Amino acid sequence: MYKLLLCLRYVARRPIGYLAIVGVWLCVSMLIVVTSVMDGFMQKIEVAAKGLFGDVILEPAGQEGLAYYDELIERIRQRVPEVEAGEPFILSYGILRVPGQPHYREPVQVAGIRLPGREKVSDFEKGLHFQRGRPPTWDPPRKLLLERLAEERARTEGMLAEYTTGGKTLGPRQQDLIDRLGVALSLQQRAAFLVQNAEDFREDIQRLQEAARKAEEDGDYEKVDSLLARIDQLKQESFEPPADRVILGLGIQGLSRRTEDGEVIRYLVPGHKVMLYIFPLGRTMSMTDFSPNQQLFSVIDDCRTGVYSIDTGFVYVPLETLQKLNNMEAELDPDDPNKVLRPARCSQIHIRVRKSRADERELNRIAGKIQGVWAEFRKEHPNAAMTEMYVQTWRQRQAKLIGQIESQRVIQIIILAFISVVAVVLIFAILYTISVQKTRDVGVLKALGASGGGVSAVFLGYGAIQGFLGSVLGTATGWLFMRHINDIRDWLSESFGFTPYSREYFLFDELPTEVMPATAAVILAAAMGAGVLGAVIPAVRAAIIQPVEALRYE
Amino acid sequence: MSKADNKPAAVAARGVTKSYKLGRTRLDVLKGVTMDVREGEFLAITGPSGSGKSTLLHLLGLLDRPDAGQVHLHGADVTRLAGRGRNRLRCSQIGFVFQFYHLMPELTVLENAVLPSMVEAGVLRWLAVRKAARQRARQVLQQVGLSERLRHKPKELSGGERQRVAIARALMNRPRLLLADEPTGNLDTKTGRAIVDLLRRCNAEGQTTVMVTHDAALAAAADRVLVLRDGKLAS
Predict the structure, then answer these.
(1) Within 10 Å of residue A34's Cβ, how many Cβ atoms?
(2) B92/A13 touch (CB, cutoff 8 Å), yes or no
(3) SS in 3 state form for A263-326?
C-alpha cells in the first residue's frame, strides 16, 4: 500500500514530474490526431467506395461495355448466395451547360443509374437532398418536390435574413454573399413555379403541337413557325419526363455554393434544366465520327457523397437514357424490331454482399466465385464483353489510393514514434533524477523492511501513473482537437491564409472527426507502457542498491 | 550491575569484521567485534569518527552483512539469512532512528509514522489493519509529544520535532530492538538532550535501545557504554 501512497504523492508533489506528463500528453495528442485522421480517411474511403460502388465491381477492360447484364446479375445472385443485389452502372464523360447561361460549361462525369434500384447496392440515396428519407426515384411526387422546395426557400431566406440583420460579420464578402443568396432565392422561386405548373406546360405543349400540325396541314407556315417557337419556349420551361431527369452532384462549380459556415446555397434545384453533351464512348467509332450527343434534362435532386472529387464532378441520369447518349442502347434489326442485333450494354456491375461488414478476405472469396460465374456465363454469351472482365473488391479497385494513404500513415506514425521516444527518454531522465534524489528514501524504505521489488514498484508505478495521466490528457486533447479539426482548419485558413488541408488532394470535403476507439486504446496502452519503460532503469537501480549504500548516499 | 544483566541477549555480534574498498585501498572498519545487547538494555556505542560505530549498528540492524563473524538476533544466527527474511526481521523487530531523520517529505507526520505498518501489512492486510495502524501511529506520536502535528509536513517541523517523528516511526511496529544512529547529531544540545530523554523513557517502558553517539555526555545517559576505537571495542 505504501507503494501506491508514495507513487501518488510523488506525482502530486514533484513538479519536475509534470514535465514528463506534459511530454506524454503532447505525444499522445499528436498520435491520436494523426492516426485518427489517417484511419478516418481510410474509413471514409471504405464508406465512400462501398457506398458508391458496392462491395464488388465487375468491369470490362474496354469502353464498349457489358451486355446481358441483368441476366448476369440474376445468375450471380443464384450461384453466389452471399450476393444480395447487383445493379448495372454506366460511366461516361460530358459537358454540362445551363440554358440561358452561354458562358457556363463544366466538364463532368456522367453516371447512368437505375432508380429505384441503386439503393440496393449503394448508399446513394443517403446523399439526396430533395428526396431524403424516402426511396429515390426519377419521378418523385410533385407535392413532395414542392414541399421540399418551399423548405429550401425558407432556409435560403433564413440565411439571407441572418446575414442582412447583422447576425454575421463577414467583412467585404458579406455583400457578395447577400447578392448570391438573393440570386439563389429568385432561382428557387422560379423553380417552384415551374414544378407547380409542370402539368399545365405539358398540356400546353401538346395543345400547341396539335395546333402546329393543323396549321401545317392548312399551309399556314407563318403560324407554324410562330407555334413552334412558342413550343420551344415552353419546352425550355417544362418539366422533362422521368427519362430525362438528372441528379446533380452537390459541389459542381457554379451550381451551388458553400459558405464559410458550411451552409450550402443552391442555385439549381428541381424544376431547373441543364443540357448535357455526352461523348459516346460505348461503341467502336472512326476518328471522325466522335461528336457528342446532347440532351436537355430537368434537375430532380442533388446528391452529396462527401467525396470531393465525386461531388464536384458527377451528375446522375437514368441508365437507359445514358445508354442512348453513350451509344450503348440495344441495336434492333430495322426490318424486324423484335430482333436484337446488339444488346444494350452497361459499363460496370456493382454488387452488394449480404454481410455488409464482410472483410477483405471474405470479399475476395466472393469475388472469386463471381469470376467463376462470369467464366461460365461468357461461354453461353461470347459477345457479352469484347474484352477481359475485371472482378474487383472495393479495396482492390481503390488500391492505388489506399496504398498512398497507407504509406503516408505508416511514414507519419514512424516519425511520430521517433518523437514519442523523446517522451520515454524524458520520463527516464526525470525518473532517474528523482530516483537519485530519493536514494536516501530508498534506503529508509529498505531499513523499514521494504523489499527491492517493493521499492522498484514505487518507481514503476510512478512512471505508469505519469504515462496514464499523460495518456488520458493526450487522448482527451486529441479527441477535442479531432472534434473541432475542421473549425481549426477554417480558422487557420481565414486568419492566416494557411490551408493545412487541401480538399482536392485528400478527396474529401471535410477532415475526419472521429477518434477510433481501438487506435486510441493502443496509443493509450503504448504511452502507459512508455511510462513504465522510462521507469525501468531507475526502478532497477532502486531495487539493487544496498540499504547502507542508499542511506549514506550524498 | 545493570538491570538487564540477567536477561538474554536481544542482539549480539560475535567476532564481526567489516571492510570497505575505497578505490584500490581496503579499509578495515570493524576488526573482530564481539558484544551483546541485553533485552531491555539501553546501550550507547561511542567513539571517534571513523571508528566503526555506524557500521556496527548497521550490522546489528541487518542493513549490512559482516565479512566474517556472526550476528545473533534474539538468540538466532541471522548472519546468512536471505534477503526476504532480513526484510521481515527489519520490518517487525527492528526500529531505526537516523541522524538526519530521513522522513519522507511528501508525507504528513501521521503518514510517516504509519509507514512501517504499511510496509509490513501489504495491500490486502492493510485494508484490514488500516484503522488500528492509524490509531497506533497517533498513540506513538502522542508518546513523543506530537499529537498536535499529525497533518503537518516534515518541512514544517523543527529538527527536534522531526527526530521525534522518526522515533515514532521506529516504534510503530513495536520493535524488540531500537537502533539510533547519532540521533542528536543534527540537533542543538538542549534538543539533543530532550531526544535522549525520550529514548530513555522508551527504554524505561522496556524498549531495548542501542544508541550510537560521539557525544560522551549523552552516552552517559545509557545503562552501558561501549567505546569503539579503530574498529575494536576499547571497553
Answers:
(1) 17
(2) no
(3) CEEECCCECEEEEEEEECCCCCCCCCCCCCEEEEEEEEEEECCCEHHHHCCEEEEEHHHHHHHC
Instruction: Please say whether the beta carbons of A474 and A27 come within 8 A.
Output: yes
The predicted-structure confidence for B192-202, as pLDDT tens digits, reads as follows 888 888 888 88
Retrieve residue A486's grid coordinates: 475542421
Instruction: Name the closest residue on chain A to residue B120, using Cα atoms.
Output: A449
Interface pTM (ipTM) of the complex?
0.90
Residue B1 has a pLDDT of 45
The number of angstroms, rounded, from the C-alpha of B106 to the middle of its chain's C-alpha atoms is 23
Residue owning grid cell 461528336: A291
- Structural Rg of chain B based on CA atoms: 18
What percent helix, strand, coil does chain B show, rounded to 5? 40, 25, 35
Distinct helix (H) and strand (E) counts, chain B: 6, 10
Contacts of A274 (CB under 8 A, 6+ apart): A96, A97, A98, A99, A246, A248, A268, A296, A297, A299, A315
A356: left (phi over 0), alpha (psi -120 to 50) or beta: alpha
Out of A9, A451, A452, closest to residue B106 by CB: A9
Name which of A2, A438, A440, A546 to mutate to probe chain B: the one with the most chain B Cβ atoms within 10 A of its Cβ.
A2
Q: Are A276 and A110 a contacting pair, CB within 8 Å?
A: yes
Instruction: Provide the 8-state DSSP code for A270.
Output: B
Measured between beta carbons, the chain A residues lying within 8 angstroms of B83 are 451-452
Residues A508-522: tens digit of each pLDDT: 667 777 788 888 888
Calculate how close chain B gets to A426, using CA atoms only, in Å.
Answer: 22
| Edge-first strand listing for the sheet containing B208-212 | B94-97, B177-181, B208-212, B42-46, B224-229, B232-233
User: E strand or H helix at A476, and its extent?
Assistant: helix A452-483
Return the ∠ at Cα A536 (arms to A530 and A538), rounded to 5°. 125
Q: Determine contact, residues A9/B107, Cβ cutoff 8 Å.
A: yes
Q: With beta carbons less than 8 A apart as the criterion, state whether A88 and A349 touch.
A: yes
- Return the residue matching grid coordinates 550510537: B212
How many alpha carbons fall within 13 Å on the CB side of residue A466? 37
Query: Which amino acid, residue A435?
Result: S
Determine whether the interchain pair A449/B106 forms a contact, defined as Cβ–Cβ distance below 8 Å: no
The stretches of A312-451 forming alpha helices (DSSP H) are 319-325, 360-380, 394-397, 399-437, 439-447
Which secondary structure element, helix H or strand E, spans residue A31, and what is its range?
helix A16-53
Mean pLDDT of A40-56: 80
pLDDT digits (tens), chain B, 235 positions? 455 567 788 899 999 999 988 888 888 999 999 999 999 999 999 998 888 999 999 999 999 999 999 999 988 999 989 888 999 999 999 999 988 888 999 899 999 999 999 998 877 888 888 999 999 999 989 988 888 889 999 999 998 899 889 989 998 998 989 999 988 888 888 888 888 888 888 888 889 999 998 888 888 889 999 999 988 988 5
Residues of A in contact with B84 (CB under 8 A): 451
Beta strands (DSSP E) in A30-153 are 56-60, 66-67, 83-97, 106-113
Which residues does residue B45 pair with via DSSP β-bridges, in sequence order? B212, B226
- Residues of chain A neighbouring B179 (CB-CB closer than 8 A): none
- A212: Cα within 13 Å, side-chain hemisphere: 15
Query: Are A340 and A327 contacting, i.e. CB atoms less than 8 angstroms apart?
Result: no
> Percent helix, strand, coil in chain A (nearest 5)?
60, 15, 25
Distances (CA, A) of A482 to A23, A275, A313, A469, A515: 20, 41, 28, 20, 7
d(CA B228, CA B52): 7
Please determine, for residue A535, whether its predicted confidence score (pLDDT) is greater than 60: yes
The Cα B62–Cα B78 span in angstroms is 8
Answer for the pair A45, B145: CB distance below 8 angstroms, yes or no.
no
CA separation for the pair A140, A270 (Å, rounded) = 10
